[in-house]
## 1
Amino acid sequence: MRIHLTVNGTGRTWEVAPGDTLLDVLRREGFVGVKKGCGTGDCGACTVLLNGRAVNACLLLAVKAEGGAIVTIEGVAQGGRLHPVQEAFLEAGAVQCGYCTPGMVLSAVSLLSHNPDPSEAEIREAISGNLCRCTGYVKQIAAIERAAARMRESR
Amino acid sequence: MGRAYDLPGGATIGARGTARPARLSPLEGTAIIGDAKGETVAVHQIRSIVRPATLEEAWERRRSEPDASRFLAGGIDLVLYVPPTVSTLIDLSALGIAAVRQEGADVVIGAMATLTDVLESPLVGEVAGGFLRDVLRRVASPLQRNVATLGGAAVRAHPWSDVIPALLVLGARLDVFDGKLSTVELSEARARSESPSPLVLAVRLPGASRDGRGAFEKFARTGFDVGVLNCACFAIIERGQCRTARVAVGGTPSVAQRLPRVEEMLAGKPLSASQIALAAQAAADVVDVRDDRRATAEYRRILTAVGVRRCLEDLADLGMEVKE
Amino acid sequence: MKKSKSRAFAVVGKSERKVDGLGLVTGRPMFVADVDVSNALVIKVLGSPHAHARITSIDTADAERMPGVACVLTHKNTPATRHTTAGQGFPEPSPYDTRMFDTKMRFVGDRVAAVAAETEEMAERALAAIRVEYEELPAVLSIDEARRPGAPIVHDEPDATGIYDASKNIAADVDIDVGDVAVGFAESDLIVETTCETQYAQHTPIETHVVLASLDADDRLVLRTSTQVPFHVRRIVAQTLGIPMHRIRVVKPRIGGGFGVKQEVLLEDVAGWVTLQTRRPAFFTLSRPEEFTSSRTRHPMRVRVKIGVQKTGLVHAIEMEAVSNTGAYGAHGLTVLANTGSKTLPLYNKAENAHFFGQAVYTNLPVGGAYRGYGATQGYFALETAMDEAAERLGLDPIEFRLRNAIRTGEGSPIFAKLGEGREGVSQTVKSCELERCLEVGAERIGWASMRGKKECRGSWVHGVGMSIMMQGSGIPEVDMGAATLKMNEDGSFNLLVGATDLGTGSDTILAQIAAEVLGVPLAKILVTSSDTDVTPYDVGAYASSTTYVSGMAVQRAAEKVREQILGVAAPMLGVSTERLALRDESVVAEAGSSVTLARVCQRAMYETDQFQIAATASCVPSESPPPFLANFARVAVDTDTGVVKVLHYVAAVDCGVAINPRLAQGQVEGSIVNGIGYALTEEMLFSSRGRVRNPTLFDYKIPGALDIPRIDVVLVDSYEPTGPMGAKSVGEIGINGPIPTMANAIYDAVGVRLRQTPFTPERVLEALRRA
């Protein structure tokens, strides 16, 4: 079957099998920044935005994205300019192996687009579904706080 | 692909953790792993996904192929496990049942509203001091909450479900459709066993629950986890007395059930420390708990007493703020 | 000891951004699976349903005929070479007890057969069509069962080598002593003995094992693989497949975490074989459940520690007996066992009498391998628990007790020489040790004095604080080797080629920082290529905390050689002798003030006069392994109603010498602490009565998430290691050893119960409270 959606701002029409997940389809279509860590929604490495909300791509049937707007990590930086969350991650040392990073960044982007002044507890909650084994989350939380502050300043 | 996947060892993981062992042959000591029928093999078995525009269409499709079809709400549970006979999914997203609205005294939450939608709904926030929102915040992570629907959660009723005990103690009812519209109590709907079960259109929070208060305790291993036990309590307290009290305990490991004996103990009495202690002990005595890989029955019994006590203390504004 | 404050570095000691950070944060294709694999065959494995069974027949005819199937692999059509999967230097100190596909299955999930097919779905259908008959054998599912006389033998194959005593299921045995502990105990005023047990745990890297095998234009086998040990992969695949090493190229791109589980040659031989047979690229990855059951795990261990202390507060004798469950195969069995003693006992070098002994035992359970900490983690649980008990019984503050007994700068320990990794070690004297300062800083940060013994209550929660100290190592002396090549470009930039393996640890970055420091250039002028066996010089790979200390020294030496070459070219240009020249700000600068840019120097050497390529290669084989040191403090709250333990505040004060990149070093410690907290509180692989893993999913094997972490303070204490590059020691592992003993001691402070079995689940804690 065919689905129509926008990915990172560009309209796409893709041939998919009914049982395909969005993760299957995105990686097949070249969006390899979307990672597979478990395939069962337990790790969050496959996080993408669907209509502005962070979701596990591995748990979403591709057809559920019909007519929707997807943002993957490849679409976060605009024209070579990093999003404040990406910049803050680099600055804060929040990236180690980088495998959880795309999902973590997108959960943070989703949080800050809905809640520009999150508390630490709200930040932790926003990334609670994104597992990381390298960093211990300390610098990731700090990076999101810093990004939030910068984004508020630049308004 | 259909998300039944193999464990090495021939068992198949179905819905989160229920494993079926490999078939043993009649010959002692040998086992045949798999066969051409593919019961132990993950296959891409979904052949079609339809998206009806009317309730009648959706129901007719479901009714005509009860074994080969399933309703598709958020789809998370189906991605993780779909029974081998299922080849058609009936997507409910075009039926217009996602809104949250006020209907008289009731707050009616469309079955296709995501848990996040419900979490952010001011109308839901007005019921029992926002109790349902507090509970939903403990469910999974935002990633799942942005996709999972309240209707799906109510129907699927995972044993560890946090949604079910919350809805049970709120006295929630379900608007359903099976060729005709009707409204049933949640517990009654769950007890029914006809196949296919009716299409859930909405979860209805009755106006009578509006002025009550709810409390919820979830005991889990980590913050992003299902509970090894959960407790939900609801009470309407007038002049220090419980006019209505509802207590539900879930993850026992079975799905939540109300505890009528405990509710009777509380009804019509003040919510005092001694009454709470009695109720908590009674809950532990009557609750049906079992061992599983997450916890033992004995420990669940202990947690039941602690959980019910803490919920009731919360409702009564008793006890210290026990945040470490 | 000298502090590093007096040294002024330009690049080293700065928290520079990771050189691979930009690509990672924008999701560029950098991991194994991020290349176009649409043309590759997909490999899936049929895992054994039995913990112990012989394959009596295996019929793949139906499977081979199925659509899309390129080949089916079994013991009948694959090389029979017995080898070890352990990624260690040759000759590996692990038994050669493994076959690619064996006739006997030794754990649930062991490899029965594999299918390579056009799609994953086709491969899985074909797996289901393989007909296998087994003769089930009685299984041994615990150390005690395995060591019982007459127990079933896990490794009865005639061609295995390097097993200590296969007939008794003993993969490895270690026994060393110093002095005479019997006499030592007799001379002691206080004896404390404790036995602690640790559980099966798994590394859960977010990226599971994955490899893409292909043939290059010259028909050489190329393995693009998620590995910590590219050179060991090349050698072991050559050995296993029986092909010349020079016909194999191993490339490690970015990998999604390792923590030791990828210090193993698990998938590459199978993928390589498929590619060689079919001439097609072959893609092989483990599902998450397979990562749990069929890759590698932490060795569960039972460690008994007995210490004899004199009234003076000096530990006079230490005995440590460690028994480890090495699972169905012996990879890393001996070395993890030996490390349990070699990284713990030297810490308390005042004990003139010491005895370390133990065994690694085969069972029909998942295979233990390398996991951050590598035995020290298990050993410190018992040792620091015993020390905590002894301090209490002596009436000494635990910190004071450690200070009296811990090793200091200028001291050695006879254990260093007696116990290396699986063989004799190397004698050494500690040249940097800031433990005292670590303890001072850590105690202050946690609020030790005001909290210890107070048992503050908030509702049902009781608070307590605990501490522990530890050391680790920096590489394996006289065994590990790292090498680096630097070549200069005519714009004043340099290519740095290192075999060293960045798992996300940032080794590419810190190695570049070292080179940049020596050469007087900014970090951006060092372009790193790493972990490609065709291009980069040899390195053992990322394990044993070797990269900063060993590979870093190789980089420093290579850079120094290149500096000499640069100065040699520049001297005539400036008319100054080389002794009067220095590298600074991308130039060669004379004492008197004249200078010439590096670009000009290289242009001259490349195009103009006495042309040659400015380049050098250098190696480092360390003669010692200077330990990093760590003092841990934790404040916990124990819920006496439910047994739940919450860590509220965790402080780690670390001495890793000079931190080449403080933020990355801090990140290593933070990450390993959180991993250790999971190991202490929630992580546990559970088994059925038939040896099957019951919870091989992240749903039911719980690792810490963002909601679970306490306030974490990592303090890098000022220190300087004279033998290390720029004064550095390594830091990759030590942090993970802290949480178990620290929290066990904190729980004791809070509620007066000693927990001796991990994880400290609420049920265990509550049970202990009730028994008390």
## 2
Amino acid sequence: MNSPGQPPQARVVITTDSARISDAVLEYALAMAAQLQLPVVGLLIEDTDLINSASLPFSREICLFTGQPRQLDTLTLLAGFGDMARRLQQRLAQRAEPLALHWSVSSMRGRRRDFHFEHLGEADFCIYDPCIYDNNRPGYNSARNGKHLLVIDGAGAAFCHTLSALLAPFSGQALQVSLVHTSERLPEPPLADLLPAGTSLHHLSREQLPQALLQAGRRFDYVVVSRRHWLAELAPQLARLDCPLIVVG
Amino acid sequence: MITPLSAAQLYNSCDPQSFGFTLSSELEPLGVPLGQERALEAIEFGVEINREGFNLFVLGAPGLGKHELVKQILSRQEQPRTELFDWCYVNNFDDPQRPQLLRLPPGMGQMLRKDMQQLVEDLLTAIPAAFQSDDYQRRREEIRSRSHERYESDFRALADEAQESGVAMMRTPSGYTMAPMVDDKVITAEEFETLPEDQQKAIEQKIEEMQKKLQAHVREMPLIRREVSRQLKKLNQEITQLTVEQFIDSIEKRYEQQDNVLAYLAAVQKNATENADDFLPDGEAADDEQVENRAQGFHRYQVNLLVDNTHQQTAPIITEDNPTYQNLVGRIEHVSHMGTLVTDFTLIKPGALHRANGGYLILDAQKVLTHMYAWEGLKRSLKSRHVTISSLEEVLSLVSTISLEPESMPIDVKVILTGERLLYYLLKRYDNEFSKLFKVVADFAHSTGRSSDSQLLYARMIATRQQYDDLLPLTSEAVARIIEAASRQTDDSTKLSLQVDFVSDVLKEADYWAGKAGSASVTLEHVEQALEKRRYRHDRIRELYHEQITRGISMIATSGSAVAQVNGLTVIALADQAFGSPSRITATARLGSGKVIDIEREAKLGGEIHSKGVMILSAYLANRFARNRPLPLAATLVFEQSYGGVDGDSATAAELCTLLSAIGEIPLAQNLAVTGSMNQHGQIQAIGGVNEKIEGFFDICQAAGLTGDQGVIIPASNQVHLMLRRDVREAVAAGQFHIYTAEQVDDVMSTLSGLATGDADADGHYPPDSINGRIATRIETWQQLQRQFARHDDGEESSNQSARSCDKNDDGNGEGNGGDNPDESPGQPQ
């Protein structure tokens, strides 16, 4: 916790409701933390909807591997959360320690589809790794050349500054960036100056945004959005994204 | 009658003047081996005849140069016996446990091995490149996206359907669950309880229905994944096939005439296509070095070039010095991998039979027979004309692990076994298959006749060895001395030893001494030195033996006379040397039942031939002195102070003289030693080791002091064998020592006793002062004694019987019959 008066300590927070953070997300988060010398926090959301569900008398769990139903009770579920936290710790330890990064894992209860901004500082970089349907699905757009980012921008100097930090791990790589400029008042940010050489910049209209979010898993590696320019109407779609979401202050 | 020999009769000298050369280097080397015409013809026949079973057995004693001659003849074969091939083992992709054998023209084996090595390296580079192509990536992504979309959209549809029905579909740590929602939130158990019962039932029903759908969907996932995997594999194969085909096509052109290689390459293509993933790098793109390293790991595409005849223009000639089973038929090696022994076709190693295919294999018969299963393996291969590689453990059923069963290799090999005569006879007698497999025998002579012509040839043979071994040239005197030594080596003055090793060794040793003396040639002095030093090096045991005699520990008299005691002569044969030594033979004679006891035999120290000799002399004795009457003799014969075995019949004459001396109490001269076997008629027969025996007695006499009357009596038929030492010859020339030959044992006895033998008169009586007279008198005395004892014994027997009769009569149980038979009266002659 920061003392009053001190500037907030920035962190790289990986928020997930499972231990199955993709390698790509983990590598990206650690690379950014290493470049900016920031601590890494694994934040595991213990989904309250799930806990409630487990207390219901007819609650059943369909096993993903066998397709067989079995009784789901609260104790088993909580034990499962405990296991997930331990696995998350192991993975972070394996990856962060060689880079001499500070790291920690914490859990909190809440709804998975909520973003829990109350637990985040203004300066934090928060990466939400979605719960995908299939363990064996290929890595995000692994076949495509160069990372593809969807940037939902409300403009502002601070966002531009933060964005440059986000792009640091991609330095030297030619990217594809799709920009949705959401502010009607402010001018479009000067993204072209921030992007690595060879990057192609596309523009999407605000009307195209819902469709783009729906297909995010197939089209993008990351969706980047600013908390300051949070669009409440997009929250349900962002909550159901099937690619990593990066939320910055 | 014994005949004294002059010094000249004791040695067959070789005259160096008869050669007509000064140094051996002037002589033309001998093209063919001396004295081995028969063996040479047999080997040439055996080598040239190209029929099944006509393998050779070259027999003869060690050191006759059998190996050398065989190799010399084989090296003259300019053409291979049959067409030569390269032989390779390659992977059998249908059954890796049974590696496939490829027969290729010479040189093509190496080419195929390199081609396959290059192919793997090319594929390791080309296949990953093909897989990185945009086209491949696009098609691969299409397949994955299609399937991903399919199950994702199914999940989404299910989740949407659930949401519309007020049910949340949520991910659990290991699966999915469904729960009712109110206001977009999952209700708690308490909230659920507050709902009306029919609503609860409806929710439960809905959730159950949704769960069934979810369950069905989850169960479909493996099928979708399998389908994706199948499509990806098909795509991979399609890409790989295109790549592999290009490379294989270029290789195939070089093997258009080789159907077996084309079939193999087709199998390689199929296998590579089916296993395209193996060619993809695990991590980042591989550099050249990594490609090379990875190529080493592709064992299944390697070519194990078992027999490489690339540079072989003539028939291969293989000599296997260590003919173990595996060295003959090949072996399958193993490597340790993760603590387990594993193998594959690349670890198949050829045996001598593989390497000699189309040519000749030279083996030492004894070594083949003494290595476990080597003989069986060789015969099996020759019979079947195929070499089958199987481990000894497998043959003996010692292991049950899975091993390889390589395709057997057809062979056409001429096997040449070399070995000693006994081995050949034993194999011929006890191995039924031997005669069918080794039909040609090359019999090496160990000696050849000695004449002026053969001496000259021998000189050329010496010159050949001298030049071959790059030794100093020999003077004609030195050559002559070696020829004399070769004669002594055979124990026959009319023969020359064909022991090439002996001659070669003497030459090298003489060369050494000449070199040490700084001489430019090997002279007589150096040869003498070499022979003397050889003798000296091995002479320690002889010295010990003779020392025992000269110190009086082993009792041998070399002067005076004694009854029932003769100096016999023995030969002690050790590994490197044989030497002679006198041995005292004694006898005892007394009244008995006609038996001559050989103490050596009774003590189990006498051999069968020695026993035979004693039986012969017993028969001789009985035949001469007791033809028509019993021989009431009990005699014993022994080699005094002999603690090892005694065999041979060379002491029979000496033993008879000892026995006659004992019977007739005739003193015999101790300054003479006797050797010779005899027959039942008293004729002296030849014996072996005559030179050593004479020299042995001479050494003892010399040590005791030569008196001028000492000497040795030998069989007359042994005279041709005499090649005695210079010092013995010199003593004979000076009249200090004598060598006599004898033809009849009577002459020997007469010489030893100084008495006449004595001829029988018309009544069969011998003159009383003759040897025979004294013996006959003694035997008659024993016969009288025997009769007296017989009468006495009969009297006692008769009295006993009378007593027994009286006893019986006293008892009143029978009639008495004692004393009724006048023949049984005491004092009545029989």
